[in-house]
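Quick one: structure tokens for this chain, please?
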Amino acid sequence: MKLISNSAIVTGAAQGIGKGIAERLMREGTHVLLFGRTQSTLDATAEELNRVAEGRARAVPFAGDVTQAKDVARGIEFAERELGLPGILVNNAGTVTMSLLVDLEEDTFDQVMTVNLKGPFLFMKAFARALLQAKKPGAVVNISSLAQLGMTEGMAHYCASKAGLAHLSRVAALELGRHGIRVNVVAPGVILTPLVENAGFVERMRGEFLARTPLGKPCGLPSDIASAVAYLCSEDSSWITGETISVDGGNHLRGMQNYWAGMNPPG
């Protein structure tokens, strides 16, 4: 597989899905700027990925906030200086909380919408401007969720943010396509990351996950998402834009399970 650029930015890259995506892009020979919030964690991840890559590509860490335009601009400038103008952007950073609508705090709603929707907007805007100025093509992959298609109690704000991200991505694909910039979405189901594993999420709802997933396992792995991202950033997908790939074992075919009930059993 040949990626369209030898330089990329991955947000939320310190662990979990973002780390898996960065590792896969590096395996394909693309240098990656690891954008995240905590410098020490990013440093450790960069060291690990550089060791695994064995010289095929380089990871450089950058600590910043995806919701701050100045941090986004500095991150892109740093990537260009260290790795060359990035032609690939993966908006993976996100956050999630659970609360019934009647109990949902305004600050919590704002935080989820800001990270999950404003962050990708800021990065796509700055990334596209840099490519337009250089007259270069590019590829954006926004990491959404099964929640962009389905609903579950206790996650109104999260579902709304991911549905918004899907529509934002389609409009971006319309506007940027004429400039050779493709914009697509990968929508994961439940993926086994340290956060999910430590919360015991899969163990509590294993039976329902299995019942709703045609491919017959409760969750996927970061590498499953990374494979879809790599494809959408490759020359093999040069005629694809404005599309969503669901990477959830077919879970979307039956709709979302009730996460709220699964995590908050009565009694």
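The domain at 7-191+221-255 is CATH 3.40.50.720 (Rossmann fold).
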